[in-house]
Amino acid sequence: MSEFKLTQRFNLSDWALSHQTLVLYLMLVLTISGLLTYTKLGQSEDPPFTFKLMLVHTTWPGASAQEVEQQITDKLEKKLQEVPHLDYTNSFSRPGESMIFIVIRDDTFSKDIPEVWYQVRKKIGDIRHTLPQNIESLTFNDEFSDVYGSMYALTGDGFDYAALKKQAELIRTELLKVHDVAKVEFFGEQKQRLFIELSNAKLVTLGITTQTLINLLQTQNAVVASGTFDSVDERIRIAVSGRYDTLDDLRELRLRANNQDFKLGDVARIYRGYEDPPHDRVRFQGKESMLLGVSMKDGGDVIGLGHALDEVVARVQSQLTVGLELNPVTLQPKIVAHSVNDFVKSLIEALVIVLTVSLISLGWRSGIVVAITIPVVLASTFLVMYIYGIGLHKISLGALILALGLLVDDAIIAVEMMASKMEQGWDRVKAASFAYTSTAMPMLTGTLVTVSGFLPIATAASSTGEYTRSIFQVSAIALVISWFAAVILVPFLGYHLLPDYTHAPEPSKLGLWFKRRLNLSPKTEDLHHHDIYNTPFYRTFRASFIAA
């Protein structure tokens, strides 16, 4: 008797029926909150994951491939061997350029990657003084995961690259104000250059070599500190005047060599232009253009970002100078919306199939209980996903479809057990309590076993595990919530929705004779309660079993 009271004390189904108002309140709050948070879940094409790759790029103009390898690449690679979690490095050396790709072990946790990149920069900084002094640049690129999902082409008849760049800077400022925009980059930008084309014939006439003239030019227009003047109240900066700000200033630059004075414009053609050959060029519909790539912040909503960008681009387009056009090239939000809609459509189809099968196989009343339970479980799952920052993408939506076929099991078991006991003559409260005491722990065990099947995905220390981790997360959330719904919500709904079952006549003498032959002594309650297995199908099956 004490053991029975202990069980009753922890009977969640009995508790739910004793607090029906609270259960109804929780059901409504979870459903409404889940539906609202569904609209706020981040949507993307793929789940976020970390690229464990960095590029160290060094330029040394004028050096041969062998010099680059010996003086730069080999030194850097030897130092990089000290980097923690290093898997391997790939290097390429060619005239004037060194590239080293650093690959980190796949089992390195994502949270450790920023520290690894810091160590790469630190160790290379430690040996920076051993590299050639005249290297032009030493850069690090660890942003391979940046995806410029939305790209816009800025074109304009009669506008050169400098004018396009000026307008693109204004557009970039507006785009950066949009929520969830991480960065805006330019593609196809042509850098301006100042060209001085020397006339060899004129230099020969003056008796000046090209190198002599270059040395003279390098001493002109230098930016140097001119000092300061300190007074009692303030410090005044002293600046040297006479800098060259225009092309005419350069043309009028007076030089002296071999005891001769001449102007730079007398021996050279000076003009503005763009780097030649160009580093990269972009054409849109046959026109020279500049691309603006928009990257989204981690965890952002790409669909919401797309709507915000459409509004900003429409406003900017109306304010552009006549002749300029800003046209979309690629719009990831539309692609993601199409992809997410396909998965949502599949999810709805699966939901309809499950509900239809439940209604047909379980009966109208029992099917309604399951049909109400499924949306509540899904809404609660969306709420927990929002709390833990799990967005909607291919992996999480696929996991929802997979979990949909599993989360109905507990609800079906609970409602069928309750209905069976009610058919046998038990009252509603006792039938609901019995369903918990007899099936709750087996259902929980089965749920945990199913969830543990996806555990290796969550614990895999690899890029694949990071990419597919939401399979375990979403499945675990949905199945655990479905168990609580089966032991709390299903008894509450069954109490109100399941029909009153009429008692069948008392067992016949032939039925009692069969029970005696099978050594099954009829209990007192069996003489008065309806035997749900006393149907033609079960009688035929039982007779076949006895005959065998």
Describe the 3D structure.
- Among the domains are: 2-39 and 363-497, Multidrug efflux transporter AcrB transmembrane domain (Multidrug efflux transporter AcrB transmembrane fold, Up-down Bundle); 53-141, Multidrug efflux transporter AcrB pore domain (Alpha-Beta Plaits), CATH 3.30.70.1430; 193-274, Multidrug efflux transporter AcrB TolC docking domain, DN and DC subdomains; 509-547, no CATH class.
- Strands 5, 6, 13, 14 and 15 form a five-stranded antiparallel beta sheet that branches. The protein has a four-stranded antiparallel beta sheet with strand order 2-3-1-4, with helices on one face.
- With 548 residues, the chain is an alpha+beta fold.
- The protein is 54% helix and 17% strand.
Supply the CATH superfamily name of the domain at 2-39 and 363-497: Multidrug efflux transporter AcrB transmembrane domain
Number of strands: 15
Q: What sort of overall outline do the alpha carbons produce when their principal axes are compared?
A: elongated
The averaged pLDDT comes out at: 80
Alpha-beta classification: alpha+beta
What is the quaternary state of this protein?
A: single chain
CATH-defined fold name of the domain at 2-39 and 363-497: Multidrug efflux transporter AcrB transmembrane fold
- Radius of gyration (CA) equals 38 Å
- Low-confidence parts lasting 5 or more residues at pLDDT below 50? 1-8, 503-515, 517-530
CATH class of the domain at 2-39 and 363-497: Mainly Alpha
Assigned CATH architecture of the domain at 2-39 and 363-497 = Up-down Bundle
Strand content: 15-25%
Helix segment tally: 19
Distance between termini?
41 Å
Helix % is 40-55%
Largest sheet, in brief, is:
5 strands, antiparallel
